[in-house]
Design a protein that fits this description.
CATH superfamily: Flavodoxin domain
Number of domains: 1
Largest sheet: 6 strands, parallel
CATH architecture: 3-Layer(aba) Sandwich
Number of helices: 6
Helix content: 40-55%
Shape: globular
Order of helices and strands: EHEHHEHEHEEEEH
Number of strands: 8
């Protein structure tokens, strides 16, 4: 079964990303199209990019980079759980992405965004520019949560029916897209293993 990596992007104390990620992870498990793995960037604690070589070369010198490379390489699809900060996405997400290069190639990517009136969609639009440069394929479907604090009670996220439907639609499309991109990922992995 393909592996879906769910990335919790915010590292801010008291962040909404944790309860939202728990809800989405439950949705993904119930969907059944993927094995799920959650990466919390607060726990990962990558320093600000500290590798001396360009990531495209995969000449990593730090253990945390080697570990992160293995985690991303094992994923077949990715979902970012992202807030919107000042009309953009968190620096922690950009840092985590920029550590690597080929490990991201040919993976479908979805977004669960949250914020105020825009529901985090401006952050998602910026992220799409970044991930497509790494040959990832954003799916059209997404989960956009406006005024998210109203859905969090006692540390738990309580989605409405529209959010559940949006999550299911995005997961369906990630399954279809992951299967279509699988030969490209296999070809890239073979090329990397022989280089």
């Amino acid at each position: 079964m393909p592996q879906l990596m769910i990335i919790v992007g915010s590292t801010r104390p008291g962040r909404a990303g944790l309860p939202i990620s728990r809800w989405f992870t439950d949705q993904a498990k119930a969907h059944g199209g993927f094995e799920t793995a959650v990466t919390d960037l607060a726990e990962l604690a990558l320093p600000l990019l500290d590798e001396p070589n360009v990531p495209r070369l995969r000449q990593y010198t730090r253990q945390h980079t080697l570990d992160w490379s293995a985690v991303v390489d094992a994923a077949d699809a990715v979902v970012f759980i992202t807030p919107e900060y000042n009309f953009g996405y968190p620096a922690t997400i950009k840092n985590a992405i920029d550590y690597l290069h080929a490990e991201w190639h040919h993976k479908p990517v979805g977004f669960v965004s949250y914020g105020g009136v825009s529901a985090g969609t401006r952050a998602v639009q910026q992220l799409k520019q970044v991930v497509t440069t790494l040959r990832m394929l954003p799916v059209f479907e997404g989960v956009n949560i406006a005024w998210h604090p109203q859905f969090i009670r006692e540390g738990e996220f309580h989605a409405d029916g529209a959010m559940d439907q949006a999550a299911a639609a995005m997961l369906d499309e990630l399954v279809r897209t992951e299967e279509a991109l699988r030969p490209l990922r296999a070809s890239s992995r073979r090329a990397l293993s022989t280089s």
